[in-house]
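Service request form, structural biology core

Requester: graduate student, group of Dr. S.
Request type: structure prediction, single chain
Budget code: on file
Notes: please return the result as structure tokens.

Sequence provided:
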Amino acid sequence: MKDTTEYRRAVLQRARRALEQGAELPPELPETIRCSWTRSRLAAAPMDRIAVPYVAADPAGERLLRAARPVLDRFAQQLAGTHVSLVLADPDGRVVGRWAGDKSALRRLSRVSIDEGYVLAEELAGTNGVGTALEVLAPVTIVGAEHYAEPLHRLVCAGVPIRHPLTRRLEGVLDLACPTADANGLLMPATLDLAAQIEREMSMRAPERERVVFDAFVARSRMTSAALVALSEQYMVTNAAAADLLEPRDEACLWQQALESLSSGRPVTRPMQLSAGSMITARCTPIMTGARPVGALIEVTPAAGARAAGQLPRRRSRATQPPKRSRATARFEQELTDAAQSLARVILLDGEHGSGRL
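Core staff response, request fulfilled:
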């Protein structure tokens, strides 16, 4: 019963009425949509129209577009006779490119400001495949009336964030859209595959020295379960064991060891005490392109005493670590306390994407 189209439509209708009245949204509303609608309402995004700004191009968007264009051009050739559209946006939600099987699909997008240069961030356009995927940093599917703004109710959107495969930096989002009548279960798998192809294209376009460092990291990862760190001038990449073990202060010490290894051109092995107190041995090996060092690969193993215990001690979980409170944190906590004791019914938490507002 609860999975029927009629039931979902009824839930959305009740949720829409609650949204218009400023009331609490029904718990039956999908979690992703409920949180997104709440954020959109707090940001005062309009429900009855799309009113988003136009922003001129910037180099970051052009870099993403160069990598994505070959992939999406090929896919767009297969869209003839369909109403499917592709929308590519930068990390701020600004549209940098669009593809479709025919021009009529692009004209329909333009009528709701889904056009190059317009910013579809969630706080501006409400719940949508571009802005919400950027907000939660995860794939999302927004179906029809799940969109916050009514002009988008005729669309189904599948949005997938795109990250640089080497730096893991957020590069943008790919959104596959079509009319609700044409929606099917292949939208999200197709979008995920296209996003993966774009990320591979980015990897191929990366400077040779960065690819060499990453390839060395991947090759060694296949041979050992030890904690591994790869460093270059532009980025650092770790496996899960290293991420669980090392604190930022530990990474700074490893960087100093990497500089020593790179300057000498030879492996350097050093004992080291981690911030949590554990003793480890770090072996740093320079990664070379010909005779030129381009990075370093660091393998962390237990020191002699820890090795006898049978495993490398792990960093304490965040739940057991003593809290580190800065002045800003203390001031923020006091502001929250004051707000909770005030008569305010709505509190807006503002900040950049990924700053922890949720």
